[in-house]
Amino acid sequence: MPPETWLRQLEQTAPAVALRQGVWLYPAVEIVHIAAFVLAVGAVALFDLRLVGLARALPVAPLARFLLPVVHRSFVAAVLSGLMLFVTDATTLAANPAFRVKLALIALAGANAALLHAGPLRTVEQWTKVPSAARSMAVLSLLLWGAVLVCGRLIAYL
């Protein structure tokens, strides 16, 4: 089945039709998506900024224990609300270059985070200073998430 066919079928599902036809439903889901995304990226940015050297008085391990659950929960909310928004115009969004780049950048940011967790962050309790690998990954994370935000805004204009 060609992608255009199943994308059109996706657009005809009951949730997609309800979102398109409801006066308040689409804006409500969009608000949830933006709020969840801001919370997720904001928490990631605060942690990354600590890793690159800001607010050195804050210990990294407790900050991670506080912020990471916030990131995980808000990211799940952003993905679920994003999927709901996607089904309303799946054919157009799937062809949008900014949307495609945004998804690729999110995957790269996720891979970077996975490497941080599998590598330097595993020994965070023993750190006397932030390892250079963790600082580099934090800088990359800030750049990737910034680019995701830019692509998210460009979707409407491309």
Automatic annotation (TrEMBL):
Keywords: Membrane, Transmembrane, Transmembrane helix
Residue ranges of the TM segments: 31-54, 66-87, 99-116, 137-156
Protein name, as recorded: DUF2214 domain-containing protein
Organism: Gloeobacter morelensis MG652769
KW Transmembrane (keyword) present: yes
